[in-house]
Amino acid sequence: MIHSLFLINHTGDIFLEKHWKSVIGRSVCDYFFEAREKAVEPENVPPVLQTPHHYLISIYRGKLFFLSVIQTEVPPLFVIEFLHRVADTIQDYFGECSEGVIKDNVVTVYELLEEMLDNGFPLATESNVLKEMIRPPTILRSVVNTLTGASNVGDTLPTGQLSNVPWRRVGVKYTNNEAYFDVIEEIDAILDKSGTTVFAEIQGVIEACVRLTGMPDLTLSFMNPRLLDDVSFHPCVRFKRWESERVLSFIPPDGNFTLMNYHVSSQNLVAIPVYVKQSISFFETGPCGRLDITIGPKQTMGKTVEGLMVTIHMPKAVLSANLTATQGTYTYDLATKVLVWDIGKLNPQKLPNLKGSLTTQAGTPKPEDNPSLNIDLKIQQLAISGLKVSRLDMYGEKYKPFKGVKYLTKAGKFQIYIYMFIFLENLMSYLLFEWLQCVLKHSI
Amino acid sequence: MRNMSTAVLYNDQGGAEAAVEAGQESTPTTSSSGAAFGLFSTDFKKNEDLKEMLESNKESLKLEAMKRVVGLIAKGKNSSELFPAVVKNVASKNIELKKLVYVYLVRYAEEQQDLALLSISTFQRALKDPNQFIRASALRVLSSIRVPIIVPIMMLAIKEAAADLSPYVRKTSAHAIQKLYSLDPEQKEQLIEVIEKLLKDKSTLVAGSVVMAFEEVCPDRIDLIHKNYRKLCNLLVDVEEWGQVVIISMLTRYARTQFTSPWKEGAIFDENNDKTFYESDSEEKKEQTEAKPYIMDPDHRLLLRNTKPLLQSRNTAVVMSVAQLYWHLAPKHEVNIVTKSLVRLLRSHREVQYIVLQNIATMSIQRKGMFEPYMKSFYVRSTDATHIKTLKLEILTNLANEANISTILREFQTYVKSQDKAFAAATIQAIGRCATNISEVTDTCLNGLVLLLSNRDETVVAESVVVIKKLLQTQPTQHSEIIKHMAKLFDNITVPMARASILWLMGEYCERVPKIAPDVLRKMAKTFTAEEDIVKLQTVNLAAKLYLTNSKQTKLLTQYILNLGKYDQNYDIRDRTRFIRQLIVPNEKSGALNKYARRILLAPKPAPVLESAFKDRDRFQLGTLSHSLNVKAAGYQELSDWPAVAPDQSVRNVEVIEPVKEWAPLVGKTKKSKSEDKFYSDDEDEKEEEGSESSGSEDSSSSSSSDEESGSESEEESSEESDKTSSDSGKSSSGSEKSSSESEAEQKKKKKTKKAPLKKNKLTAGDSDSDENGNGPVAQSSSSSAESSSGSETDSEDDSDSDNIAAQKKKKSEAKSKPKVEVKSKKEVSLLDLDDFSPAPTNAPKSSVVSSSLLSDLEGLSLSNVSSTMQVTTPSFGPVKTYELLHHMTGKGLSAKYHFPRQPCLYQPSMVAVQVILTNSSDHSLEEIHIGDRSPASLNIHCFNTIERLEPEASVTVSMGIDFSDSTQAANFQLCTKEDQFSVSIQPAVGELLMPSTMTEEDFSKEQGKLLGMNETSATITMATANTSSQAIGKQVLSVANVGVVSSSQNNVHSFSSAAGRFNHENKERRVWSQQIRRSQGFKHAVLFSRENPHKSD
After folding, report:
1. Which of A240, A352, B569, B1046 shows the greatest Cβ crowding within 10 Å of its Cβ?
2. Gyration radius of chain A over CA positions
């Protein structure tokens, strides 16, 4: 399946290679570099490439390319999913997945790769199993190992590898038994210029941090499970219980893990926490434009909106911005043409406003591209979908664990369409509006 | 060299620092000289240094050196000249060093074959290691060394490993098969044999890997799958995620060859726009099978049902593979269930989105309805990567219909203004496609596109023009208005490409705009010299065409333009002008060509086709690499068409084979009788094959109890399957035990519920009963209780027969049953009881199944030696500890206690018998006490019959069987009354899963020696000094751990043994477990249980 793996940094250096079958020369990467060159942005490189003798499947994460070489037919998602799992594992082991970290721990990474695949087929991808075989580095252990000559490599088969619960090792012990669940929801929305929701949905995830002794069997139930449109689970969750009773029954992995992902679709009327009033306009005559943005609370369920941030990708022609913000600070990056307005907490009594003028390049045609406006926000202690955990029960162990549930709402891909008004004096603009009306008429 | 040695020194002394830096190319930070060294040294020099380190005696130095070597390998630098130095360390005791050497070996062995051979013997030794982990990794490395000369050794190792007791080693052997095959394809036949064997393996661990090997080595040997098909379907949910992907795609292929198309009748459910793809083949099939309505093969249904839950997997590859399975196999109206999950995947990483969108694009062409409700999920975001945007656009275009086109167009309007010009251009094309597909909006689209011609961006304009051109060509009737419109716009359009295109249109359709075209030409004549080359060329074209159609008005203009062109700076234009002049203006030289000028210039041009780029992708199986690239990838397995007539279904039946036949070829092997298990995945199958089942069970004279049970159980497929296995191998002596204890319980129950007075034996159950009531939860060991329980053995023997019948009849009253079989098998049980129990309680697993004549056969097996030396001292040893199951406070008056009677369970040999005492401490009677849901859902419990009514203060003892699957994991289930449900759990201690056995010390040590790959369970008991006599220890251990004493000559070592009667999931033979207890100095005694791990670890 997966023949070789190359790790490539953003400047195009191959800094790690691993072959699971016979060695494949680095020259195979040239095809990739070609595609990389063509794509301009690293995100735009097609994930699947074909070369005369091989197929290249790559992912781009943390400014690194994970490039795998394939020789025969294999589901591409299989490889992509695996590569992401490799990146996850590295992140899990060393806190981040970056070139520096991998170079610093090259032997451990190499050993990990060796364990994760056998002959190109995934062998052990559960981080819990891997950690028993190759222990993650800690400063304390490094010291101890040097002094005692002990090693970071386990010599017994991890218990998880054999059991029906490969995600959990046996003999877990804690003095404080605790189980925390974070219900995090992200609102993905597209609003049009009038504030009408074009599209909105909620993507939720339950992140768990479980530190419980022994083999606890947990059952998590919701007040309103019908809300959930579509779910995906960590392998520990029992499908059948969910299907029949709508409760999450599972033997949890030890430590942090993602218990489930869910989706609440727009049918359930997604609440939009803020509204935006904006106008950006340019004049045909004179090198300037105007910008005026106000943000106010809409449906916040009585909670405060925090971490509010507005990001606008300006048209290329905009040279500079001279604005005043009633609250927060703004920056305009001349190179990327990105205007960022960091507002912070939203005060419903005094709505934050950003106003001022934009300077465009003199003599150039007026911008035609629509800027896009993205919003970032956070609401603590609220799951915007209204999802509530009703209870957590534990079976299989005698002690009483400490339990906690936290809710958080964030903006995911929260985008607002902006239509700029360009005041033109010629026929074209007239026709443009004519067409707009024509289309709109058709839609009604 | 001096510098270098300092560097080494630093590393050596650096302690923690050095360890942290390990793996980096020794770049000491402390000295400048070291840094200089790092800068100027060459690989060669460094390797010299490494060689020294590797050959030193210090383990730490070696390790350090190996880390650097591996660092070099990781960077792709050559370090092959170190091979001799490295290979010496292959036998190192340090496990980390060893692993690094393995890594090195695998990388370079191919290049240094001779030297690599030096290491082989080490691996061969490791293959026999008692530690399964070492065995597995030895096989992994051995098979990864690509040296042709060791092929026979590898073959041997693989064959041995495939029969290993550890499923992990077997999994490794499945991986090794592929490696060996790629090294030497000539071994194919032998490897197929191993694959065939491993396919029968019932471990979820092995399933994925062996199917992978199957796909790699012999994907065409579909016949190997037949017998394992149902097992694979049933195991699927529990297989690890990567294995799931492989199995699902293999099963998709399998199903397409084995089942008939579900799409024939299903056509009624389909949407209208659905006929493109499968129409042809469903039609032809209809003719053949018109008369017979389609009935889905139960196996086909089984596959669909068992894969469905995997749509909820977190692994995107699994979800995709289930989606493609449904797409290719499910009846059309069922395919929709995958939509939601696919849409969910769009939230995942960019690369995942890319693949999923590609697949959705292909699907949406054939079945718009599937994704239409999710249209908004495909709206493009400004932050998407270009290839994602383009794919989303593609899908939106596919989804467009009369109803939603206005929404989509409005969305497109936004995209056209995108900053990403390539995307804007793609949008324009999409608008064009919508316009051709949906006639209502053609005009709107055209108008919109015309407007775009004024865009300043060349890409947009060029694209618009191209699309307009295409649109006009496809609808050549009513577009003079648009051309007029474009002519009006012409003055304002500056982009040369757009001007040129408009001119081309004018020329092409000049007859429809007879007034405007000459006027445009007039204007062009004025500005000709200032135009771009491309515009000039089109001007010449226009002039020529007008000259042919309307020479009266344009003759002079044309001549003027041709003259201008004649002296143009660009030779292309001069060239063209000359050519046109010759073509259109008649003179002597041009002759023949002139006649055809009109036909040449005004020939009807074929309309370009506007269709999806994904139109032809459906020739590939969804989710494959080939599909993604739209090119057939190497090793792609075609998905065959549905067979017109289904091949024989019965090939998938796993019939019960006569034990004799099965045993003969398996002599001496550790893993037995994999195929003789039959399992019925679910009710449907059950019903279908009932006939064969019953006859099968008669033939094989398998024990009655479990066989009948399988009829009534619907959910627990996998456990059922294992039950079958064990029932086949059920044992006689324990059989009688079971019936005795069981009938006992049944009796009691009847007494309580039916109030039918029956002869009551005061037996173990009774004993412990009173114990609990009197002593509370903890009943410590007493030798007397052991006696009474041993009495139960003889007592119950006579009764068991009749009781059993009664009990089972009652049990079966609600479920449909086959009374005849029941009675018959009942007799057999009793028969075997008499045969086997009294003289020599051999505990060969087969003995109950096997007729007495067969026993002699068995004698010859190596196995039977084991069993003859071991005597399971079955009757429980009395000391019974009672545990609380449900407190009367939480149970709203219902309280429950349980204990392990330590008797073989009647219901199924793999179950552990548990007795539960239910007491009603409330003031009202409780009704309908029964067992409700269990978790894990696969948990196999033999429930007691519902207790209709329990009066206040009354208590009832019921017995149940729980299959703990050899693990100490708690069995959770719900105890229900009419009104309430209480979740309870039973967790067994290790000992409760065992059965004690007695044997001589000699046998003990012999058996102990045979144990490979051990697992240890330890517990500590504290005893008073007074109790340190061996007898006391024996009792104590017995009470805690349920193991038998082995008489010992050594005074301070006590050995205990027990047979793993219930641990026969995997292997039919009873494995010997041995336990040893060592007396240590103080009062503490550590009990070490070592045991073969059959299936799961505890």
Report:
1. B1046
2. 27
Q: Is the peptide bond before B936 cis (omega within 30 degrees of 0)?
A: yes
Element (H, E) at B700: helix B690-700
pLDDT at position A427 is: 44
Span A327-380, pLDDT tens digits:
888 888 888 888 899 988 888 888 888 888 888 776 666 665 667 788 888 888
- A83-89 long-range Cβ contacts below 8 angstroms, 24+ apart: A83/A5, A83/A57, A83/A58, A83/A59, A83/B351, A84/A59, A84/B349, A84/B351, A84/B352, A85/A116, A85/A122, A85/A125, A86/A5, A86/A112, A86/A113, A86/A116, A87/A59, A87/A61, A87/A62, A88/A127, A89/A116, A89/A125, A89/A127, A89/A130
Scanning every residue of chain A, which has its alpha carbon at the shortest distance from the alpha carbon of B986? Answer: A396
Q: What tokens were used for B1048?
A: 């010992």
pLDDT at B1083: 32
| B71 at interface of A, judged by CB pairs closer than 8 A | yes
Scanning B567-678, the segments in alpha helix (DSSP H) are: 571-584, 592-595, 597-601, 625-629, 659-663
Nearest to B936 among A74, A238, A242 (CB): A238
Nearest to A110 among B18, B59, B103 (CB): B103
Which class is B45-258 in CATH? mainly alpha
**For chain B, domain boundaries:** 45-258, 512-604, 882-988, 994-1078
Task: Tell me which residue of B762, B802, B772, B1030 sits closest to B895, measured CA to CA.
Answer: B772
**Mean pLDDT, rounded, for B142-171:** 87
- B166 to each of B243, B324, B725, B1062, B1092, how far by Cα in Å? 18, 34, 18, 17, 9
Say if the Cβ atoms of A44 and B385 lie within 8 Å. Answer: yes
**Helices marked H in B931-1048 — which ranges?**
1001-1010, 1030-1041
Tell me if A84 sits within 8 A of A125, measured CB to CB. Answer: no
User: Residue A37 corresponds to which tokens in the numbers above?
Assistant: 């060159």
**Strand, coil or helix: what is A381?**
coil
Cβ <8 Å between A162 and B413: no
Among partner residues A44, A75, A439, which is closest to B245 by beta-carbon distance? A75
**CATH fold for domain B882-988:** Immunoglobulin-like (2.60.40)
Chain A residue at shortest CA distance from B342: A230
Q: What percent of chain B has pLDDT over 90?
A: 5
Domain with CATH 2.60.40.1170 in chain A: 178-270+384-442, 274-380
Residue ranges of A 154-213 with Cβ closer than 8 A to chain B: 154-157, 159, 161-166, 170, 190, 198-199, 201, 203
Q: Which residues make up the CATH 3.30.450.60 domain(s) of chain A?
A: 2-148
pLDDT at A364: 62
Longest dimension (CA), chain B: 136
* A contact residues 33-92, partner B, Cβ 8 Å cutoff: 39, 41, 43-44, 46-48, 50, 55, 58-61, 70-78, 80-84
- Cβ contact B18–A431 (<8 Å): no
Give whole-number Cα distances, B1078 to B208, B1040, B1053, B1084, in Å.
42, 15, 5, 10
Amino acid letter, B614: F
Q: What is the pTM of this model?
A: 0.65
Q: Which superfamily does A178-270+384-442 belong to?
A: Mu homology domain, subdomain B (2.60.40.1170)
- B385: nearest Cα among A411, A59, A34, A75: A59
Cβ of B376 under 8 Å from any chain A Cβ?
yes
Contact B948, B930 (CB under 8 A): no
Answer yes or no: are the C-beta atoms of A89 and A112 closer than 8 Å.
Answer: yes
B105 membership: H or E segment, kind and range: helix B95-108
Domain A2-148: state its class. Answer: alpha beta
Class of the domain covering A274-380: mainly beta
